[in-house]
Write a structure and sequence with these properties.
Largest sheet: 12 strands, mixed
Distance between the termini: 26 Å
Radius of gyration: 24 Å
Helix content: 25-40%
Number of helices: 15
Mean pLDDT: 89
Amino acid sequence: MTSQALKQLDRRLDNFLAELTEPMGRSERAHWARVYVQGLLLDGQRKSVEPMAERIPGADVQALRQFLSQSPWEVAEVQRRLALKVVGTLSEPELWILDETSFPKAGEHSVGVARQYCGALGKIANCQVAVSLHWSGAQASCPLSWRLYLPEEWLKDSTRAAEVKLPAGLKYQSKTDLALELIDQALEWKLPRLPIVADSAYGNSFDFRQTLRERGLHYVVAVEPTTVVWTTDPNLPLPPPKATGRPRRHPPLSDLPPAQTLLAVAKALPASAWRSVQWRQGTKGPMRSRFAKVLIWAAHGWKAQAHPKRVAEWLLIEWPADAPEPTDYWLGYLGGAVVGLRRLVRMARGRWRIEQDYRELKEELGLDHFEGRHWLGWHHHVTLVSMAFAFLRSEQARAKKNFWCDVADDSQTTPSGADSSLR
């Protein structure tokens, strides 16, 4: 965005940021938050502190660095208010999207950096990895909150932890743990519940899907073709009790139906099970492929005679007509509701928006340009980037001809009695 274009939006940007920066406390913090967001929005190849300060008249490098990495403003309340604003701005809510993104790093001192899989490079490399939860509507999506993944080595090295100022008491959390923490936070914020979509890094976990069901949440998540399932209900009645010995609590393994991989299930389906479905309009025309859905029960742990609660899930399979084998699989749970194939496909394929978000966050707003090393600074940076991104989304929504939402005007006052957290 050019300086002239941003200047025309000055008042709207001030109004947008006013309630978000209120929890930061001191007025100078709100000022530097505004300067930082302005720097993120302005054109420029590098969005770290020094280059941004050079582009903004009156910006002070030292003050910006102190605000970003040392100022003790809380991230959670700012993110909560931002989440409420996003929910109120993006129309036609459809999904919560979970995913992770990576930040390649040259050195070893940035918080959380390690040799691990780096999606940005497509290989094992030195990088940071973060998990994020996004709110997705029919026209756009936006990040709600973030968690930085800390490899175990960081928590075992007290010297290294002190150097990046890790909070006391942090324990190791897998990326799935972080994803569930983000979901629980959104529920605590009373955000409207939406179905969750995620890739197979999360969907492969039986425990993850079970936890979502326990939270009363619906989902459509990608899984690997080696996942083992039953196509008939394994919750069989118990055999008659024997005259001696303990009564059975579960049916014997020999009575269970045969378990199959998803690939085997797909290959056994009749031709009549497959339908051509168009799920959205892409840049090169309609997005269309061939799909089938089957009711299944996950067989997780069955050989070890584990007995988690087995519930019916929808298996969605994509097998393009010109492909030798199926290309993608998802498991969906929608609380027992009758689900049309097209709706299931649209949900499964809705995850593309988060990839678009990551690209825009990095290429336009410098999500991966943070040069500090500390835990607090990293969380401040991603929160401020999310604020800038949400502002752009609100401006895009305002520009739409049929935009339905009551976006605030350019007035700098709030009606008496209004709840600022819901504006």
